[in-house]
Specification:
The complex is a heterodimer of chains A (389) and B (309).
Chain A (H helix, E strand, L loop, with lengths): L5 H22 L8 E10 L6 H21 L1 E3 L2 E11 L4 H13 L4 E3 L4 H14 L3 E3 L6 H4 L5 E3 L4 H15 L4 E6 L3 H16 L3 E7 L8 H8 L5 E5 L2 H13 L5 E4 L6 H7 L7 E5 L9 H12 L6 H18 L4 H9 L2 E4 L2 E4 L10 E8 L2 E9 L2
Parallel strand pairs in A: 1-3, 1-4, 4-5, 5-6, 7-8, 7-9, 9-10, 10-11
Antiparallel strand pairs in A: 2-3, 11-14, 12-13, 14-15
Helix pairs in contact in A: 2-12, 3-4, 6-7, 9-10, 12-13
Chain B lengths: L1 H31 L6 H21 L6 H28 L8 H22 L4 E2 L8 E4 L2 E4 H23 L1 H11 L1 H6 L4 H27 L1 E2 L3 H16 L4 H25 L9 H15 L14
The chains are: A alpha/beta (389), B mainly alpha (309).
Chain lengths: 389, 309
């Protein structure tokens, strides 16, 4: 049987043509006309998956800042600058995060705002450090992120060492809970926060009666909540995100588990109230920083943001401030070159929407505070703020 | 010990849903020896369509009792899933009826991915919450709490499963289905329209999947484009556990898997002295499946697959 050569013979030139066309496009450099300089800033967050609403929130916060900067018209090194936001999706998965980080490093972006989760930010930070790209995370709170000693790693949100401590003390003293059950979602964030919470609660005299685990993709907690119910806690602490916290609150109610629910910044979001419905009422959660409306630029930011993108989930103001910090550092160094403005970044002293931003030697924001909120009706009401200034 | 009863109840509720979806897998495998990977996604589409209708009705301020609104959602989801199941069979599986076994398997995975991404594009990526319109009455039985919704899920699942078993064993259509499952060629010679029967199998399975989808989203209060993946995987495992192709096996396998998962997650921490935590909940169920298959490969109640002459 003669092999059928006609089809391959016809397809070969077609495929060669396509490859050649592709090559030609790549050969053209992305240089804009004359005096404009394009500065690419990467923004990485989960744009798909259970935390997509938070990822989009971060992305929008960064985008708002970028659009404002472009309208203002920044000049660096004598050239007018146009900022471009390169949005990438890490699916809150550490494996995808490293792939995306490498992609941005290869594109040689000038900075990265991201990632959102601690579990993705930490592995990605090594890649950015090796490439010399400064990285500011708006929301990763695990201590490990800045403990690695990378000069390029910064964050604008207070870390979990303080947040867990505040929560633990609040639970044991203010809420007077003597028997506490802890659940964490086994991510770098949830695990770390729960560990700090446990330490602080135990020091303040409470007893941890149970420590159960789940994942950041689960929706069924009936089994672990039933097991916890058998130990009769007064309070359940959840270290994890709102996509789990919401259904958890609902399932606690349906099981008749009368304990109070307490969580961290992963739960202190608009989406939590939607997912938990009526069972969200009375739930307490903390968030680093001051309450948005009590910050000097807070209300103005809220109005600007909601007009363009809808309700704020939680971290958008931090993403906004992260971009402001970046642009301010670039202006001080008069250059968008990471090697030149990185030293300026470390010397940041800026009054942003989220408060006074200054970095310590590790890249953490110094002098941070933690605010506790409670769901009343359809809003998170600020209860009290600990630390800060 | 009262938490044992509670874990059992949770497991039975979960298991009823698994059983409903497992029936769809087992019916199709019994006739075509095809693992319909897209079945989990059909369940998801059922949930999404129902939620869209329920959300629209609940938000429009129409004064109907919550139960009626959910019923409307279910009545919208069932025909949608039936049509979807029929379409999948005609478009993706029928052309491959005589192809080597691997081809329809890969196609099924492909259909599953297509449906997931279609749902993501249509309904977005976030969790869609179920409007709080159902009554939340709780009852105490021997230290355990059971809600009206849980009771309803178990009862409805039992009713549907019983209905399907009656259909398959006591009606003419059922006889044709069983004949096709035993040997399509001979059934064809006896005057059974094989293509029609296969289509009806897919349609029935998809209808059950639609109801299961609504149940899951009502139970957990949310639905999202990815919810069908793990649910489908577990339901298929349940079908294999009970004996693939065997309807009674699917029911048993589903209930058993639900109970094992629930008890496992509840007690695994104590059993292993904290070495394995409750986040191994999913692993536990699949681990038991592997154990059963090692010692009894044809499942608990035995396989019932088509005889290839």
């Amino acid at each position: 049987m003669k092999p059928n050569l006609i089809l391959p013979a016809l397809l070969m030139p077609l495929m060669l043509g396509l490859v050649a066309c592709g090559k030609k496009e790549n050969a053209e450099p992305a240089k804009a006309a004359g005096s404009e300089q394009i500065v690419k800033i990467g923004s990485v967050s989960p744009l798909t998956g259970p935390q997509a609403h938070l990822g989009k929130d971060n992305d929008n916060g960064a985008r708002l800042a970028i659009d404002e900067a472009n309208t203002k018209g920044i000049i660096l090194g004598g050239k007018k600058v146009r900022f471009e936001l390169v949005s990438e999706d890490d699916q809150s998965d550490p494996k995808v995060a490293t792939i995306v980080a490498q992609k941005l490093a290869d594109q040689r972006v000038n900075a990265v705002i991201g990632h959102l989760n601690s579990g993705t930010t930490i592995p990605a930070s090594k890649i950015y450090f090796d490439a010399g790209i400064p990285q500011i995370s708006p929301s990763a709170t695990a201590i490990a992120y800045t403990a690695q000693g990378y000069k390029t790693a910064f964050r604008v949100m207070t870390n979990d060492e303080q947040q867990g401590k505040v929560l633990g003390e609040y639970a044991a003293t203010k809420l007077g809970a003597k028997k506490i059950a802890v659940i964490d979602d086994r991510t770098a964030y949830g695990q770390g926060l729960a560990a700090e919470f446990e330490k602080a609660a135990k020091t303040a005299g409470a007893e941890i009666v149970a420590h159960e685990f789940t994942t950041d993709r689960s929706t069924d907690f009936m089994a672990i909540l039933t097991s916890i119910k058998g130990k009769n806690p007064e309070l359940v602490f959840f270290g994890g995100m709102d996509a789990q916290g919401g259904p958890m609150a609902k399932q606690m109610k349906s099981l008749g588990l009368k304990a109070k629910l307490l969580g961290g910044d992963g739960m202190q979001t608009h989406e939590f109230m939607k997912l938990a419905g009526a069972d969200a009422d009375g739930v307490i959660a903390s968030s680093p920083g001051l309450a948005l409306d009590s910050m000097p630029g807070g209300k103005a930011f809220r109005d600007k943001f909601t007009a363009k993108y809808g309700p704020i989930q939680n971290y958008a103001p931090y993403a906004y401030d992260a971009v402001q910090v970046l642009i301010a550092a670039m202006q001080r160094a008069n250059s968008a070159d990471p090697a030149k403005y990185l030293p300026e970044l470390a010397k940041t002293d800026l009054n942003g929407v989220t408060g006074h931003v200054r970095f310590d030697q590790k890249g953490d924001v110094s002098g941070g505070s933690v605010t506790l909120y409670q769901v009343k009706g359809d809003k998170w009401q600020a209860l009290e703020t600990v630390g800060g200034k | 010990m009262d938490i044992f009863l509670q874990q059992l109840i949770n497991g039975l509720v979960l298991g009823s849903v698994y059983a409903l979806v497992a029936l769809g897998y087992t019916m199709v495998y019994g006739i075509l020896e095809l693992i319909n990977f897209a079945h989990g996604e059909v369940t998801m589409i059922g949930a999404m369509v129902a939620l869209a209708v329920i959300g629209a009705l609940a938000g429009s301020g129409v004064d109907l009792p919550g139960v009626m609104i959910v019923l409307a959602g279910v009545l919208a989801a069932i025909p949608a899933c039936m049509a979807l199941g029929f379409a999948i069979e005609r478009i993706a599986y029928r052309p491959l009826r005589n192809a080597p076994r691997l081809a329809p398997l890969i196609t099924a995975i492909g259909v599953s991915i297509v449906l997931q991404n279609a749902a993501m594009l249509i309904w977005g990526r976030q969790y869609i919450s179920f409007p709080p319109i159902l009554p939340v009455a709780r009852h105490e039985i021997g230290g355990a709490t059971i809600t009206d919704l849980q009771i309803f899920i178990v009862l409805l699942s039992c009713a549907l499963m019983a209905g399907l078993l009656v259909l398959v064993h006591k009606t003419r259509l059922g006889r044709a289905m069983r004949a096709t499952a035993q040997s399509p060629q001979v059934a064809g010679l006896m005057g059974v329209n094989i293509n029609t029967i296969i289509s009806i199998t897919f349609i029935l399975g998809s209808a059950l999947a639609a109801v299961a989808g609504v149940m899951v989203s009502a139970y957990y209060g949310l639905a999202h484009y990815y919810m069908g993946f793990l649910l489908g995987l577990k339901a298929f495992s349940a079908a294999v556990l009970g004996g693939i192709g065997n309807l009674g096996g699917a029911v048993l396998g589903g209930l058993l898997l639900g109970v094992i998962e629930s008890l496992g997650a509840g007690y695994i921490g104590d059993l292993t002295g904290g070495f394995l935590g409750s986040h191994y909940q999913d692993v536990f169920a699949f681990f038991v499946l592997i154990l059963v298959l090692v010692f009894r490969p044809s499942g608990l109640l035995g396989e019932r697959v088509v005889e290839r002459a």
